[in-house]
Design goal:
The protein is an alpha/beta fold. It is built from 17 helices and five strands. It has two domains: about 5-205, P-loop containing nucleotide triphosphate hydrolases (Rossmann fold, 3-Layer(aba) Sandwich); about 250-375. It has helices at about 10-20, 40-50, 65-70, 100-115, 130-140, 165-175, 195-200, 210-220, 225-235, 240-245, 250-265, 270-285, 285-310, 320-330, 335-350, 355-370, 370-375; strands spanning about 30, 75-80, 150-155, 180-185, 200-205. Strand 3, helix 6 and strand 4 form a beta-alpha-beta unit. The longest helix is centred in the C-terminal third of the chain and has 23 residues, at about 285-310. The chain starts with 9 loop residues before the first helix and ends in a 7-residue tail after the last helix.
């Protein structure tokens, strides 16, 4: 069923299905919420339901219209996103007319990837904003009759990328809606939109996805084993798109790097720790360091679950090391440790100097985890 292809978001699904049942759909919606949680996916599935030949609350997935939606090729579905400006492009030109063959090919590849996975983020090289010509194309197309008995649906993805000119053009479209059209804006940053645009849309807020929802989807859709899916789900921060990006990452290697960093912080001299920090900073991308910090956070969270016998251990392949750590450190301010790592991640995202972040984190973790007597005597024991 179409709605089941969207992960989670049961509250939003119930709201839209109720609107369909009562024939009370708005003419314009603003789908807002964190990135990668299914805003585009649900917008497209709603469009599919509105054009399904069976006329039910959920698209059948098998009729001719549904088949066309599978490839995002249905004439009543219009996807609007950031595009590059073509050479000699002027106001009023069709948005694709002045683009090169290479640019058109890149756009087709992105649309094919979106059709294959509705959680894919469309990114076109040299596309920095949603062009005014793309919005004017909406006005031209919306005045035409819809294909068949369905409804024309215009989905403006990442609507926060509207510039001033395209925003004003969209405002005119919203002020003069056509009865058999539906306009859906999706964005993770609704505060970037003109207040006048927001006020003319019915706002629908999407939730972050629960770890269990992401894990289940990874197992069913990507055929991952449950253990690896659980780790990825915890790192994804509620975003399925983020989870998909992590599939190709060497998570276990990054986790081990994080745990080794912890061992260096606890049981080596400050000079040794500084050398470890330098090695990490030189050999890793900022995104990889962020991931290993999240993985370290996950590993330490598992030590809490193991010590208290509560919750589910994610790093089940490393149970022996977890047990040794718990046996050796029986009294830790777990909340303070978690805050320390989260603060480091926050500084990393603010482009603070990486070696300084890691060195300060290592010193903080040593103070928070080592017993006072152990730290003063610099006892050289093994954390593993």
């Amino acid at each position: 069923m179409a709605w089941k292809s969207v992960i989670g978001q049961e509250r939003v699904k119930d709201f839209l299905i109720s609107s369909l049942r009562q024939n009370r759909l708005a003419q314009a919606y603003l789908f807002s919420g964190p990135g990668g949680v299914g805003k585009d996916a649900l917008a497209i599935e709603l469009a599919k339901a509105l054009n399904c030949n069976n006329g039910a609350l959920e698209a059948c997935g098998t009729c001719s219209n549904c088949v066309k939606f599978q490839s995002l090729q249905h004439p009543n579905l219009h996807l609007i996103f950031s595009l590059p400006v073509g050479k000699y492009e002027v106001s009023g030109d069709p948005p694709l007319e002045k683009l090169t063959d290479e640019q058109i090919s890149a756009i087709k590849e992105q649309l094919a990837a979106k059709a294959q996975n509705l959680y894919h983020d469309i990114v076109v090289p040299k596309a920095n904003a949603i062009k005014v010509n793309s919005i004017r194309e909406i006005r031209r197309t919306s005045s035409l009759r819809s294909f068949g008995n369905g409804k024309s649906v215009f989905v403006i993805m990442d609507a926060d990328q509207l510039n001033d000119e395209s925003s004003n053009a969209l405002l005119k479209t919203l002020e003069e809606p056509h009865e058999n059209n539906l306009l859906i804006l999706t964005t993770a940053r609704p505060d970037y939109l003109l207040p006048t645009i927001v006020s003319r849309c019915q706002q629908v807020r999407f939730d972050i996805l629960r770890n269990e929802e992401i894990q289940d989807a990874l197992v069913r859709r990507e055929q991952l084993d449950a253990s690896r899916a659980a780790i990825i789900a915890q790192l994804a921060n509620g975003s399925y798109t983020r989870a998909l990006e992590l599939i190709s990452t060497s998570l276990l290697e990054l986790r081990d790097e994080g745990v080794n960093f912890l061992r260096s912080a606890l049981h080596r001299t400050r000079e040794n720790l500084l050398q470890t920090v330098d090695n990490i900073a030189i050999g890793s991308e900022r995104s990889e360091i962020e991931q290993f910090l999240y993985l370290l956070q996950s590993w330490l969270r598992d030590t809490v679950a193991s010590r208290e016998g509560s919750g589910r251990v994610i790093n089940i392949d490393d149970l022996e090391a977890l047990k040794k750590f718990v046996d050796h450190y029986s009294e830790i301010d777990d909340a303070a440790v978690a805050r320390s790592i989260q603060r480091a991640i926050s500084l990393l995202n603010k482009n603070v100097y990486i070696p300084l972040i890691l060195l300060n984190l290592g010193i903080e973790l040593r103070k928070l985890i080592l017993p006072k007597s152990s730290e003063s005597n610099r006892t050289a024991t093994t954390a593993s």
